[in-house]
Specification:
By secondary structure, this protein is mostly beta strands. It has no helices and nine strands.
Amino acid sequence: MIPETDLYAAAFFLADHAAVENGKIYMNGGFWNQMQFPSFPASSTFSVVGVINVPWSAHHQLHKFSVIFTDADGHKFDGEFGGEFQITPSPGTEIGQPFLMPIAAAANGFVFPVPGQYSAQLLVDDDEIARWGFRVSLVEQLAGGSGSGPTDIPRF
């Protein structure tokens, strides 16, 4: 069981597109773990989605978050992003009530150098609180096309 005194990820995954508005996450095509491309290096645009549970004891503190990407050997590669947040409860919030902090960011033109296994990692205050693994594969195109659409989008 996760103690209510710790920050933790209530959710962390990839999506085709996601945005945060009014404290909610709006997304399309979420929760996938495979991408296919006809050649490498390959470029893609997708979103990273997270929801951080911030316990009462961590309110009124500045927290830093970052998302990093690693290959199967754990080597970091370009594409890291991050930010800061601080939770200030509104008047009337019950003492002890945690807060859900949604985050969503677009990885535009993200380059995968080779096929393989990759991970997105969510860190808060330099501690990893979540990891999402995904596979990037080479797919051969049929001569004349298959009519199934572009191959630079996730396929299941």
